[in-house]
Amino acid sequence: MKGKNNFQGHNHRNDQQQERQEMFQKHEVEKKRKKNKRAIITYGSLAMIFLLVGGFTTSYYLTPGDYDDFAKCLTEKGVVMYGAIKWCKYTQAQANMFGKSFKYIDYRDESLLEGIKTRPTWVIEDKWYEKVQSFERFSSLTGCKY
What we know:
By secondary structure, the chain is of the alpha+beta class. The chain folds into two domains: 1-63; 68-142, Glutaredoxin, CATH 3.40.30. The protein is 60% helix and 10% strand. It contains four helices and four strands. The longest helix is centred in the first third of the chain and has 61 residues, at 2-62. The radius of gyration is 36 Å and the shape is rod-shaped.
């Protein structure tokens, strides 16, 4: 009898060890699954953000500006803007009025116009127009439609 009990006790311990081993393995598998799920969510989110930013950026640069034709017309008529875009808030404000269409404006640094006192200064048909100008004013001086 005693040998049988020992055998049953030994089997019981083996069963417990095997049970613990299986639980440990299940736990490890579950940890890996959760880690993989987190990685998929993280990388998926990053990919989505990258695609959205790329899409908006591409859309911005590929769509024309609201005042492209107006800015091109001003440049074709010989209109030149002189200013200090890096530090002058008035030059920056004038540029911002055109938005992304400003790239079509003939803009030059103030150092290229001798005697400039106010920024921005616009030169239209050899006449100087100081300070920020309205689109209405540009239109009346040049005939360009905005």
